[in-house]
Amino acid sequence: MHELEPGKGGPLEIAAALSISVYFLPDVLKRFHRVHPKIMITIRSGHSKEVLDMVLGEEAEIGLARSLQHPEVETISLREDPLLLMANPGQGPKHPRRARLEQVATWPLIFYERGSSDWTLTHSLFRRAGLVPNVALEVDSIETAKRMVERGLGLAFLPQIAVGSEIRRGKLVAVRILDAEPLGRSLDVIHPRHRPLRSEAQAFLRIVREAINQMPAK
Fold this sequence. Notes:
Blueprint: E1 12-17, H1 18-23, H2 25-35, E2 41-46, H3 48-56, E3 62-66, E4 73-87, E5 98-99, H4 101-104, E6 109-112, H5 117-128, E7 135-139, H6 142-150, E8 156-159, H7 160-168, E9 173-177, E10 183-192, H8 199-213
Parallel strand pairs: 1-2, 1-3, 5-9, 6-7
Antiparallel strand pairs: 3-10, 4-8, 4-9, 4-10
């Protein structure tokens, strides 16, 4: 997002994980623009590891990512972002709201972003239990997986940040797994330890915290 009258200190450069960029940043940027209309912001998206690399390489002043720790960056954990097993509510009793992992492994599952941390977490859940999941589809993004679930093509483990609206509107429902530890990661802000944040970056972090505090718990 570029403002017509940028701030004197140059643009505020933000790196963000893909899910955060899609599902969280638009509201943050709307709030920030309302209070600081003359500050120019640039956004670069990527996987969490790429966000870390951009912050370490001074391509971004602030990074928004999930579960990132590194000795050269300060990490501020804002909230937990669990991975929820989501289903189409119209799929009926075939997919109950509570199930054991062995049962879930037999259902058609949709995986996304092969090699990503979400993909690894989900596969590890079944591998630790000695189960092989019934992967019906592998797609390129969280959004694609969500749309496939909405159309009843399978179930998917999706970040809560990506499905809050659909849950509230009854378009998707969460299935509770009775015999497995919850999956999830934290939503983090990172910035270099050796470089103080400019006032623009500090103002941006205040808006981020406000948005996080106003997010519904579920």
